[in-house]
Write a structure and sequence with these properties.
This protein has 185 residues and is mainly beta. It has three domains: 59 residues, SH3 type barrels, CATH 2.30.30.30; 60 residues, OB fold (Dihydrolipoamide Acetyltransferase, E2P) (Beta Barrel), CATH 2.40.50.140; 57 residues, OB fold (Dihydrolipoamide Acetyltransferase, E2P). The chain is 4% helix and 52% strand. The longest helix is centred in the middle third of the chain and has 8 residues.
Amino acid sequence: MSTLTDIRTGVVVKLDGKPYLVVWHQFNRKQQRKPVMRTKLKNLIDDSTLEKTFLAGESFEFADIETARCQYLYNDGNEAFFMNNESFEQFALPFSLVEESLQFIKDDIEVYVTFYESRPIGIQPPPKTELKVVETVPGVKGDTATGGTKPAKLETGATVNVPLFIVEGDVILVNTETGEYVKRV
C-alpha cells in the first residue's frame, strides 16, 4: 500500500482513471491532526492542472507510465504517425494532442513517446533541433547596432524570431521547449 511519503515531485499518480504528474508537493503535519500531503497535479492526457490534498490513510495508486524512443514519420492534419524503434510497430496520435510539439520536428526525427497503460498519450521532442530558414526579410546594413530580431519561417512551418544577420537558407538551432532561436549552425 502506498503512503503519503511516497508522493513527491516527478511521480505519476492515477486519479479517476487518469494519470497525473506531481509538479509540487508539501507535507503538512499539525498538532493532533492527521498528516496531509498538499499537491499540484498536471493531467498527462489533457494538460489540465489540479490541486489535491491527500489525507493520511487515503488510498491511491501510481500510474503505469512508460516511455519509448520512437521515430516521427509524418502527419496528415488529423493524426501524427510514429514508429516504435524497438518493435517497429506503427501507431498514430491525434494531431491536436501533439501539434505544439511537432511545430519544430521534421519527419524521421527521433522523439520519446509517453505510454499510459500501453496507450500513447504524448510526445517529448529532443530539447534542441536544427531547422532550415525558408523565409525571412533581408537584414538592412547598419541594423545590427540595436541587436534586434526579425521573424523567420522554418521548414516545418513554424515562425521564430532570429537575429538580423540570419538569411534564407541558413540552418539554425531551435530550443523546442521555448520555441526560441539558439544559434546559427
